[in-house]
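Z., the sequence and structure:
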Amino acid sequence: MQIGLDFNLVEDLVAGVDEVGRGPLCGAVVTAAVILDPARPILGLNDSKKLTEAKREALFDEICEKALSFCIARAEVEEIDRLNILQATMLAMQRAVEGLHVTPKLALIDGNRCPKLAVPAAPVVKGDSQVPAIAAASILAKVTRDREMSAFELIYPGYGMGGHKGYPTPVHLEALARLGPTPIHRRSFAPVRAAWEAREGVIDSLI
């Protein structure tokens, strides 16, 4: 259920929801939902992209310790390729809200649209810099995904995943063209699809 945003309705048990990973060429899209505890304030919450890595890591631990409830969820590469990135993101957000062990009275979603939820929901454009609970969700999602991409650096060396985190940087695009896609690349994304087709063309020419 979606409602118009009225901050007079925002009293307690508000879940902030955000995602990280819509733009990268590889890896899951990761979402988080957070219900903050008014009795245990967390200083320094902000859009995760505006914080240093060290600050995000410190806030990650503090959010996990102090939040009334939080859930980190995801949609995998197969789901992204099958559903498209928007629908996979909505699915991951649904999973995050449904995974909370406390039912929120309202879910505030970063962006301009909401997933289908069993609780009232409202979108907040640039919510990660306006709503503390959304900022907290953005931090949990980004730290989680960044850690995963750093781990993939060891599994798939040569792509620079620990640096670009899967985004289509020149380094990533060059490695993709040179080495071809990995199992965690999103084949529905144009640069990956092009690299995959080029790879298949080379294989066909050798047969």
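Residues 1-10, 203-207 have pLDDT under 50 and may be disordered. Strands lie at 14-20, 29-35, 69-75, 106-110, 121-124.

Let me know what you think.
H.
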